[in-house]
């Protein structure tokens, strides 16, 4: 299936989850948020939230700086 992750098209296998897609774009262990089709998905639901063809996922990583 094809989804959009951070504005870029990605091909994922059928049955992929938010957790699978997040793993494609970051290995950060914390400070990561995800929004699926403009709805925030809590980290505890990433593995249970299946993706569908044409979904839009935004993955945000917090950065520290001055």
From TrEMBL:
Give start-end ranges for the coiled-coil region(s). none
| Protein source organism | Actinomadura rayongensis
Q: Where is the signal peptide?
A: none
Q: Which InterPro entries match?
A: Beta-grasp_dom_sf, Mopterin_synth/thiamin_S_b, Thi_S, ThiS/MoaD-like
CDD domains named in the record? Ubl_ThiS
Q: What is this protein called?
A: Sulfur carrier protein ThiS
